[in-house]
Amino acid sequence: MTTTTATQGPATSEIDDRSAEPIVLLDDVTKSYQTGAVAVHALRGVDLQISAGEYVAIIGPSGSGKSTLMHILGCLDVASSGRYLLDGESVEELDEHDLALIRNRRIGFVFQQFHLLASLNAWRNVELPLCYAGVARTERRERALAALEKVGLADRAGHRPNELSGGQQQRVAIARALVTDPAIILADEPTGNLDSHSSEEVMRILDGLHRSGRTIVLITHEADVAEAAERVIQIRDGQVVADHGPGAPDDPAAADRLAVAKRSKQTLPRPRPTSSPPDADLTHPGWCP
User: Fold this and answer.
1) What is 185-254 written as a DSSP string?
2) What is the pLDDT of residues 99-128, one digit of tens each?
3) Which of 81, 177, 214, 223 could form a disulfide with 108 if both were Cys (CB 3.0 to 4.6 A apart)?
Protein backbone atom coordinates (compact mmCIF):
# COMPACT_ATOMS: atom_id res chain seq x y z
CA MET A 1 0.00 0.00 0.00
CA THR A 2 1.30 3.45 -0.89
CA THR A 3 2.20 5.64 2.08
CA THR A 4 1.29 9.28 1.76
CA THR A 5 4.19 11.54 2.65
CA ALA A 6 4.90 15.24 2.53
CA THR A 7 7.94 17.43 2.79
CA GLN A 8 9.21 17.19 6.34
CA GLY A 9 10.94 19.87 8.31
CA PRO A 10 10.84 21.91 11.49
CA ALA A 11 7.59 23.44 12.67
CA THR A 12 6.71 26.78 11.18
CA SER A 13 7.31 28.53 14.49
CA GLU A 14 10.96 27.40 14.32
CA ILE A 15 11.69 28.70 10.82
CA ASP A 16 9.20 31.49 10.23
CA ASP A 17 10.43 35.04 10.72
CA ARG A 18 7.23 37.03 10.81
CA SER A 19 9.04 40.32 11.29
CA ALA A 20 9.62 40.27 7.52
CA GLU A 21 7.49 42.12 4.99
CA PRO A 22 4.26 40.20 4.25
CA ILE A 23 4.40 37.91 1.25
CA VAL A 24 0.82 39.01 0.43
CA LEU A 25 -0.51 42.51 1.05
CA LEU A 26 -3.91 43.73 -0.12
CA ASP A 27 -4.60 47.40 0.57
CA ASP A 28 -8.24 48.55 0.13
CA VAL A 29 -8.82 46.17 -2.81
CA THR A 30 -12.11 46.28 -4.67
CA LYS A 31 -13.44 44.28 -7.60
CA SER A 32 -16.56 45.15 -9.59
CA TYR A 33 -18.16 43.51 -12.62
CA GLN A 34 -20.69 44.93 -15.03
CA THR A 35 -23.50 42.52 -15.91
CA GLY A 36 -25.66 44.35 -18.40
CA ALA A 37 -26.86 47.45 -16.60
CA VAL A 38 -26.11 45.99 -13.17
CA ALA A 39 -22.81 46.55 -11.35
CA VAL A 40 -21.73 43.62 -9.16
CA HIS A 41 -19.38 44.58 -6.33
CA ALA A 42 -17.59 41.31 -5.57
CA LEU A 43 -14.95 42.79 -3.24
CA ARG A 44 -15.47 45.92 -1.16
CA GLY A 45 -12.27 47.38 0.28
CA VAL A 46 -10.38 44.26 1.38
CA ASP A 47 -7.29 44.74 3.56
CA LEU A 48 -5.23 41.59 4.06
CA GLN A 49 -1.68 40.57 4.87
CA ILE A 50 -0.17 37.08 4.89
CA SER A 51 3.36 36.38 6.05
CA ALA A 52 5.74 33.75 4.67
CA GLY A 53 5.09 30.33 6.18
CA GLU A 54 1.51 30.99 7.24
CA TYR A 55 -1.31 28.50 6.71
CA VAL A 56 -4.44 30.58 6.08
CA ALA A 57 -7.98 29.44 5.33
CA ILE A 58 -10.40 31.85 3.65
CA ILE A 59 -13.95 30.73 4.28
CA GLY A 60 -17.31 32.04 3.16
CA PRO A 61 -20.61 30.96 1.61
CA SER A 62 -21.34 30.93 -2.10
CA GLY A 63 -21.35 34.48 -3.45
CA SER A 64 -19.29 35.87 -0.58
CA GLY A 65 -16.40 36.94 -2.81
CA LYS A 66 -13.91 34.29 -1.75
CA SER A 67 -13.42 32.95 -5.29
CA THR A 68 -12.90 36.48 -6.62
CA LEU A 69 -10.35 37.04 -3.86
CA MET A 70 -8.57 33.81 -4.82
CA HIS A 71 -8.43 34.88 -8.46
CA ILE A 72 -6.81 38.17 -7.49
CA LEU A 73 -4.36 36.52 -5.09
CA GLY A 74 -3.43 34.08 -7.88
CA CYS A 75 -3.03 36.84 -10.49
CA LEU A 76 -5.82 35.22 -12.52
CA ASP A 77 -7.66 38.54 -12.34
CA VAL A 78 -6.77 42.10 -11.35
CA ALA A 79 -8.42 44.41 -8.84
CA SER A 80 -10.63 47.29 -9.91
CA SER A 81 -8.92 49.51 -7.34
CA GLY A 82 -6.53 49.26 -4.42
CA ARG A 83 -3.07 47.75 -4.23
CA TYR A 84 -1.76 44.18 -4.24
CA LEU A 85 1.85 43.49 -3.33
CA LEU A 86 3.07 39.93 -3.87
CA ASP A 87 6.42 39.37 -2.21
CA GLY A 88 6.99 43.14 -2.34
CA GLU A 89 6.05 43.52 -6.01
CA SER A 90 3.16 45.72 -7.10
CA VAL A 91 0.97 43.35 -9.11
CA GLU A 92 -1.33 45.98 -10.60
CA GLU A 93 1.63 47.44 -12.51
CA LEU A 94 2.35 44.19 -14.38
CA ASP A 95 1.25 43.40 -17.93
CA GLU A 96 -0.30 40.09 -19.04
CA HIS A 97 3.06 38.57 -19.91
CA ASP A 98 4.53 39.29 -16.48
CA LEU A 99 1.35 38.11 -14.75
CA ALA A 100 1.68 34.81 -16.61
CA LEU A 101 5.26 34.50 -15.34
CA ILE A 102 4.08 35.17 -11.79
CA ARG A 103 1.47 32.42 -12.11
CA ASN A 104 3.99 30.00 -13.56
CA ARG A 105 6.89 30.51 -11.16
CA ARG A 106 5.73 32.04 -7.92
CA ILE A 107 2.24 30.59 -7.32
CA GLY A 108 1.28 26.94 -7.13
CA PHE A 109 -2.39 26.20 -7.84
CA VAL A 110 -4.50 23.30 -6.57
CA PHE A 111 -8.07 23.27 -7.88
CA GLN A 112 -11.18 21.28 -7.00
CA GLN A 113 -11.37 19.83 -10.52
CA PHE A 114 -7.67 18.71 -10.61
CA HIS A 115 -7.16 20.01 -14.20
CA LEU A 116 -4.93 17.12 -15.27
CA LEU A 117 -4.44 16.31 -18.94
CA ALA A 118 -5.93 12.90 -19.70
CA SER A 119 -3.37 12.14 -22.43
CA LEU A 120 -0.37 12.54 -20.10
CA ASN A 121 0.82 10.30 -17.31
CA ALA A 122 1.37 11.63 -13.78
CA TRP A 123 4.95 12.82 -14.09
CA ARG A 124 4.29 14.46 -17.46
CA ASN A 125 1.37 16.36 -15.91
CA VAL A 126 3.61 17.46 -13.04
CA GLU A 127 6.36 18.71 -15.35
CA LEU A 128 4.09 21.02 -17.37
CA PRO A 129 4.86 24.23 -15.42
CA LEU A 130 8.57 23.52 -15.95
CA CYS A 131 7.99 23.26 -19.70
CA TYR A 132 6.59 26.78 -19.69
CA ALA A 133 9.57 27.93 -17.61
CA GLY A 134 12.03 26.57 -20.17
CA VAL A 135 13.62 23.99 -17.86
CA ALA A 136 15.73 21.31 -19.58
CA ARG A 137 14.14 17.90 -20.19
CA THR A 138 16.32 15.90 -17.78
CA GLU A 139 15.82 18.35 -14.93
CA ARG A 140 12.08 18.46 -15.56
CA ARG A 141 11.77 14.71 -15.14
CA GLU A 142 13.93 14.67 -12.01
CA ARG A 143 11.95 17.45 -10.37
CA ALA A 144 8.60 15.96 -11.38
CA LEU A 145 9.50 12.57 -9.91
CA ALA A 146 10.79 14.22 -6.74
CA ALA A 147 7.52 16.13 -6.37
CA LEU A 148 5.50 12.93 -6.80
CA GLU A 149 7.68 11.29 -4.15
CA LYS A 150 6.75 14.10 -1.73
CA VAL A 151 3.04 13.30 -2.09
CA GLY A 152 3.50 9.55 -1.90
CA LEU A 153 2.93 8.74 -5.58
CA ALA A 154 6.35 7.74 -6.85
CA ASP A 155 4.94 4.33 -7.78
CA ARG A 156 2.18 5.94 -9.87
CA ALA A 157 4.41 8.21 -11.96
CA GLY A 158 3.63 6.35 -15.20
CA HIS A 159 -0.14 6.17 -14.69
CA ARG A 160 -2.59 8.40 -16.53
CA PRO A 161 -5.38 10.23 -14.67
CA ASN A 162 -8.05 7.65 -15.59
CA GLU A 163 -5.88 5.02 -13.87
CA LEU A 164 -5.81 7.00 -10.62
CA SER A 165 -8.40 7.55 -7.90
CA GLY A 166 -9.75 11.03 -7.23
CA GLY A 167 -7.50 11.40 -4.20
CA GLN A 168 -4.46 10.32 -6.21
CA GLN A 169 -5.31 12.78 -8.97
CA GLN A 170 -5.48 15.59 -6.42
CA ARG A 171 -2.09 14.53 -5.04
CA VAL A 172 -0.68 14.71 -8.57
CA ALA A 173 -2.12 18.23 -8.78
CA ILE A 174 -0.39 19.13 -5.50
CA ALA A 175 2.90 17.77 -6.87
CA ARG A 176 2.42 19.94 -9.96
CA ALA A 177 1.86 22.96 -7.70
CA LEU A 178 5.09 22.19 -5.82
CA VAL A 179 7.37 21.46 -8.76
CA THR A 180 8.31 25.11 -9.44
CA ASP A 181 9.08 25.74 -5.75
CA PRO A 182 6.53 28.59 -5.61
CA ALA A 183 6.38 31.36 -3.01
CA ILE A 184 2.75 30.53 -2.20
CA ILE A 185 0.34 27.64 -2.74
CA LEU A 186 -3.31 28.49 -3.44
CA ALA A 187 -5.67 25.59 -2.84
CA ASP A 188 -9.23 26.25 -4.05
CA GLU A 189 -11.68 23.75 -2.49
CA PRO A 190 -9.04 20.98 -2.75
CA THR A 191 -11.26 18.39 -1.06
CA GLY A 192 -14.51 19.37 -2.79
CA ASN A 193 -14.59 16.32 -5.10
CA LEU A 194 -13.10 13.78 -2.69
CA ASP A 195 -14.43 11.22 -0.25
CA SER A 196 -13.61 11.58 3.44
CA HIS A 197 -10.55 9.28 3.35
CA SER A 198 -9.01 11.01 0.33
CA SER A 199 -9.81 14.41 1.87
CA GLU A 200 -7.90 13.45 5.00
CA GLU A 201 -4.89 12.40 2.91
CA VAL A 202 -4.86 15.71 1.02
CA MET A 203 -5.18 17.73 4.22
CA ARG A 204 -2.33 15.76 5.82
CA ILE A 205 -0.13 16.65 2.83
CA LEU A 206 -1.02 20.33 3.09
CA ASP A 207 -0.29 20.25 6.82
CA GLY A 208 3.10 18.64 6.17
CA LEU A 209 3.92 21.28 3.58
CA HIS A 210 2.97 23.99 6.06
CA ARG A 211 5.18 22.47 8.75
CA SER A 212 8.08 22.50 6.29
CA GLY A 213 7.64 26.25 5.87
CA ARG A 214 5.38 26.55 2.82
CA THR A 215 2.92 29.45 2.61
CA ILE A 216 -0.55 28.02 2.01
CA VAL A 217 -3.82 29.80 1.33
CA LEU A 218 -6.82 27.47 1.41
CA ILE A 219 -10.18 28.57 -0.03
CA THR A 220 -13.15 26.61 1.31
CA HIS A 221 -16.77 26.80 2.38
CA GLU A 222 -16.36 23.91 4.85
CA ALA A 223 -15.70 24.85 8.46
CA ASP A 224 -14.04 21.53 9.32
CA VAL A 225 -11.58 21.95 6.43
CA ALA A 226 -10.82 25.54 7.46
CA GLU A 227 -10.02 24.36 10.99
CA ALA A 228 -6.88 22.66 9.68
CA ALA A 229 -5.30 26.09 9.11
CA GLU A 230 -3.62 28.11 11.85
CA ARG A 231 -5.48 31.28 10.80
CA VAL A 232 -9.06 31.56 9.52
CA ILE A 233 -10.37 34.56 7.57
CA GLN A 234 -14.11 34.82 7.02
CA ILE A 235 -15.44 36.78 4.05
CA ARG A 236 -19.02 37.81 3.45
CA ASP A 237 -20.56 40.24 0.93
CA GLY A 238 -17.11 41.06 -0.42
CA GLN A 239 -15.64 42.09 2.93
CA VAL A 240 -13.49 40.47 5.59
CA VAL A 241 -15.78 40.09 8.60
CA ALA A 242 -13.51 37.99 10.85
CA ASP A 243 -9.81 37.15 11.02
CA HIS A 244 -8.52 34.92 13.81
CA GLY A 245 -5.17 33.29 14.53
CA PRO A 246 -1.46 34.17 14.40
CA GLY A 247 -0.83 36.98 11.91
CA ALA A 248 -4.35 38.42 12.19
CA PRO A 249 -4.71 42.22 12.49
CA ASP A 250 -5.39 42.00 16.25
CA ASP A 251 -1.82 40.72 16.64
CA PRO A 252 0.13 43.95 17.48
CA ALA A 253 3.24 42.79 15.61
CA ALA A 254 1.16 42.04 12.52
CA ALA A 255 -0.46 45.48 12.69
CA ASP A 256 2.97 47.13 12.83
CA ARG A 257 4.17 45.14 9.80
CA LEU A 258 1.05 46.09 7.85
CA ALA A 259 1.60 49.80 8.52
CA VAL A 260 5.23 49.56 7.40
CA ALA A 261 4.34 47.58 4.27
CA LYS A 262 1.66 50.08 3.27
CA ARG A 263 4.18 52.91 3.47
CA SER A 264 6.75 51.00 1.43
CA LYS A 265 7.08 51.92 -2.25
CA GLN A 266 9.83 49.44 -2.99
CA THR A 267 9.09 46.73 -5.56
CA LEU A 268 11.13 43.75 -6.64
CA PRO A 269 12.55 43.23 -10.14
CA ARG A 270 10.10 41.60 -12.50
CA PRO A 271 10.93 38.02 -13.49
CA ARG A 272 11.90 37.46 -17.11
CA PRO A 273 11.54 34.26 -19.14
CA THR A 274 14.46 32.06 -20.09
CA SER A 275 12.47 30.21 -22.72
CA SER A 276 8.71 30.18 -22.78
CA PRO A 277 6.65 28.89 -25.74
CA PRO A 278 3.77 31.41 -25.82
CA ASP A 279 1.48 29.35 -28.02
CA ALA A 280 2.23 25.87 -26.71
CA ASP A 281 -0.52 23.30 -27.23
CA LEU A 282 -0.98 21.68 -23.84
CA THR A 283 -3.44 19.16 -25.26
CA HIS A 284 -0.67 17.47 -27.23
CA PRO A 285 1.91 15.46 -25.24
CA GLY A 286 4.63 16.09 -27.79
CA TRP A 287 4.71 19.88 -27.57
CA CYS A 288 7.03 19.98 -24.55
CA PRO A 289 10.66 20.11 -25.81
Assistant:
1) EEEESTTTTS-HHHHHHHHHHHHHHHHTT--EEEEES-HHHHTTSSEEEEEETTEEEEEESTTSTTSHHH
2) 999 999 899 999 999 999 999 999 999 999
3) 177
Q: Provide Rg for the chain, Cα atoms.
A: 19
223-258: b (≥16 Cβ within 10 Å) or e: eebbebbbbbbbbeebbbeebebbbbeebeebeebb
65: closest CA among 41, 98, 95? 41
Contact yes or no for 58/235 (Cβ under 8 A) = yes
Question: What's the pLDDT tens digit per position in 11-61?
Answer: 444 434 444 578 999 999 999 988 888 888 999 999 999 999 999 999 999
Residues 6+ apart with CB under 8 A from 141: 123, 127
Chain mean position to CA 230: 16
Give the burial class of 18: count Cβ atoms within 10 A of its Cβ; 0-12 exposed, 13-18 middle, 19 or more buried. middle
Distances (CA, A) of 10 to 3, 91, 157, 183, 247: 21, 31, 28, 18, 19
